[in-house]
Amino acid sequence: MKKAIVLLSGGLDSTTALYLAKSEGFDEIYALTFQYGQKHDKELQSAQAIARAAQVKEHKVVTLLLNQWQGCALTDPEMEVENGKVDRQDIPTTYVPARNMVFLSVAASWADALDITDIYIGVSEVDYSGYVDCREEFIRAMEQAINLGTVTGAEKKHHITIHAPFMHMTKAEEVKLGLKLGVDFSLTWTCYRGGDSPCGTCDSCLLRAKAFAEAGVNDPLTVHTTKS
Questions:
Q1: DSSP type of residue 153
Q2: How many Å apart are CA 207 and CA 190, to the nearest integer?
Q3: Cβ proximity of 12 and 20 under 8 Å
Q4: Phi, then psi, of 58 in degrees rounded to 5
Q5: HEC string of 66-81?
Q6: Number of Cβ within a 10 Å radius of residue 112
Q7: Domain ranges of the chain
Q8: 3-227 has which CATH code?
Q9: pLDDT tens for each residue of 180-209
Q10: Which of 4-13, 74-83, 104-113, 126-135 is the least confident region?
Q11: At what angle do helices 171-181 and 12-23 cross, to 10 degrees?
């Protein structure tokens, strides 16, 4: 059985990455989701629904309270999520300090425990909000560190690969790929603000709207919201 760990946030990118891993022959998917002190649990609910729909081997929700320090609008109760910019050049206040570094470290620990050599993450440096931990340079550096710091990589010499298949892919291309793979995008959640329906104005909502528009298909969350 081919095994892989997939970082599953409940969003468009990570869900498509999960289905891509399945299509690439990984029979046993171990999904990893984090409760890191987010102000809402909508993405956690989505991740759980997606894990069930995809029939993963195991789904763990790990608590890492990154809200113990201030400065991020996603975790700091004193900060509001700002309205987004599709062509942003600055680092937004929704950047969670070193989040992907932390998440990949935990994924590496689980991979080491299970002797798994493949980790999937849905980051991209094409359509993104300028987060420094979504860049290919960072992913390759983390891969090297993980191989030096695990028994699987350093002692057993089983190279651990971090798969970032969307690194140079637009979100529109992701949407098209996801549809081919059978992703139910109605289960995913993208909005930074939570609530009963997407706000439509945060960075994440704007990037998602742009992706579906460029892909030429309706976003099921938006369609549902419009009809309701």
A1: I
A2: 9
A3: no
A4: -155, 145
A5: HHHCCCCCCCCCCCCC
A6: 20
A7: 3-227
A8: 3.40.50.620
A9: 999 999 999 999 998 889 999 999 999 999
A10: 126-135
A11: 50
